[in-house]
Amino acid sequence: MSAFMRTHLVDGGPERKLSSLIADAADPSYEVDVVVVGSGAGAMLAACRAYDNGQSVLIIEKTHLYGGTSAVSGGGLWIPNDDHIGGDGGSDSPEEALAYLKAATKGEVGEGKLKAFIRFGPEMLRYAEARTHVQYRANPYYADYYQHLPGAKMGYRALDAEPFDGKRLGRDILKMRETSPTMLIFGRVTMSTSEAVTMLSRAPGWRKCAWRVLRNYALDLPWRFVSRRDRRLNMGSALVGALRLSLMERNVPLWLNTPMKSLIVEDDQVVGITVEMRGRDLPVRARRGVILATGGFESNQQMREQYLPKPTSAEWTGAPRCNTGDGINAGVNAGAALGNMQHAWWTPTVHVPGEEKPRGLFSERALPGCVVVNRLGKRFANEAQDYLDFVLAMYEDHANSGANLPAWMVFDARFRKKYNAGPLVAGSILPDRFHPRHWLGKVYFRGETLEALAWQIGVNPEGLKRSVDRLNEFAKTGIDLEFNKGGNAYDTFYGDHSVKPNPCLAALEEGPFYAIRLDAGDIGTKGGLVTDEFSRVLRADGSPIRGLYATGNTSGAGATLGPAMTFGYIAADHIAGVYDAQRDSVCGDRR
Ligand SMILES: Cc1cc2nc3c(=O)[nH]c(=O)nc-3n(C[C@H](O)[C@H](O)[C@H](O)COP(=O)(O)OP(=O)(O)OC[C@H]3O[C@@H](n4cnc5c(N)ncnc54)[C@H](O)[C@@H]3O)c2cc1C
């Protein structure tokens, strides 16, 4: 196999000869109906849909791996009023969904786009489950993040990916970006969302559950000689694996190691892209449309400093290093407007030496027996709240006190023994001595007393002692009078339900005490190209740039997987000319 074949192409499927693809790729006049730029879930779903609409499609991916952040993610979809909800015993309605979304987005996203998401999210999922290998299940317990808002639900709108058998991808699985270590047991073994929650919170049956997933990994013996990667794909890799197989079956080519450099614009219309291939710039023409899905700008330090609150660092992002705002910049050069650039999917992250990116701390803060403080030793927020608002609280506290960024998560020996904390596996399974030695003093800190710990991490000892004493009092009654930790269904989802009266509150009283540094990280940025409810990229005057579409974090409404897939689906349909008029009347206001 030539170097060209190995680096530039992933075969679109068994029937298509690689030689013909190479000839295609080297041909400067390579032309398809739809070019999809990026290979995350929104991109892949859009490509499937475009193909099913009868279009010829090509996917371009900058790196040597496909899947982007979508593949390393938790793979959870948030789709209100989808078909699973009623079937599984929940209830929802477009009206409740709209009330919730309007309140949550505070006018930053036009009603037309919200309505399009509510209407076509369920349709997209129905299509994905019927026509691709994607399979999801409603999570009855994962509550909406903002429980106080109108239309909020205590469960069901969030969907978890069903495990996907990676054997079906053959060796192609090795070209998928690997699951984040945050989502792996011992850095190797995958788990589904419900298995993760069972194990992390030590819910009844967690030992059996752990045994089952570890045994499954061990039994895939022949594969162990090829790779340590787990072929039982879960979470984001299950989603991306399922979409990849669906694309392979459709013979849709995916070119790896092929960054888009710019858009080709003729007569005010986008008619293709220029890609870099083996050091040469090659035009790829798109007869009907280009869909940009190159993620956000989280790994572009210069753009972070220009747009995000400061201080900010590309070192703090928990997303892979591939997303540097390329699609956003290409769109701007073609005349597009930008929106919501100050927002990110904030998540506190912890740096682990030797790992490509820091790990997100999504859930541990909710567990009982920990507290998060600033340099004054003061609590500043409800530790159990969602990760996005938690980092916003870090910034707000920093603006007021000058003593945050980083913050410190402090816990006691009992917590350490029972629960995972960032990269630290629960001490009952892996005591300190089994973790890398050099982590002590870098990834985590340990002191026999709270005071000794405070000195090590540069936190005011009296302040820390006061915060812990107060929290210990709250733990007795189960009511956090300061920040109401554990006061709603979202908080308690990740709590330990064997702890009473509040699954998120317990006293910190048993030494040694531990601390982990939390940076104001993210799992991707939200802002980008302004798009309408058809996913068309808009100029500042509101007019669409013909031939140009965007989805996922490239589009400025901010979108995680559910919206990324939905607006990818809508883009493919709009390119194919499906029901434009009907959508106009359904969605009303366009932006
Ligand atoms: C640990 C973790 C857990 C998460 N869990 C969830 C979850 O459960 N639910 C949820 O909704 N969200 C979750 N997220 C967030 C979610 O994964 C991202 O918001 C989403 O994947 C972004 O999708 P995207 O298509 O915009 O970008 P990506 O999936 O990152 O895809 C962008 C792709 O474009 C490629 N690219 C970039 N530039 C170019 C170029 N010039 N030419 C060609 N290709 C290019 C990149 O290499 C990349 O492969 C999580 C994120 C992380 C890190």
What would your notes on this structure say?
- With 591 residues, this protein is of the alpha+beta class.
- The protein has 20 helices and 25 strands.
- The strands form eight sheets. Strands 1, 2, 10, 11, 12, 13, 24 and 25 form an eight-stranded mixed sheet that branches. A four-stranded antiparallel sheet has the order 18-19-21-20. The chain has a three-stranded antiparallel sheet with strand order 3-5-4.
- The longest helix is centred in the first third of the chain and has 21 residues, at 111-131.
- The radius of gyration is 24 Å and the shape is globular.
- The protein starts with a helix and ends with a helix.
- Residues 1-24 have low confidence and may be disordered.
- Bound molecules: flavin-adenine dinucleotide (FAD).
- Flavin-adenine dinucleotide binds next to helix 3, helix 4, strand 22 and helix 19.
Strand content: 15-25%
* Small-molecule components bound: flavin-adenine dinucleotide
Number of strands: 25
Tell me the distance between the termini: 48 Å
Fraction of residues in helices?
25-40%
Low-confidence stretches: 1-24
Q: What class do helices, strands and sheet pairing give? A: alpha+beta
Q: The biggest beta sheet, please?
A: 8 strands, mixed
Principal-axes geometry comes out as globular
| Oligomeric grouping of the chains | single chain
- Count every helix, treating DSSP H or I runs of 4 or more residues as helices: 20
Taking Cα atoms only, what radius of gyration do you get, to the nearest Å? 24 Å
Mean pLDDT: 91
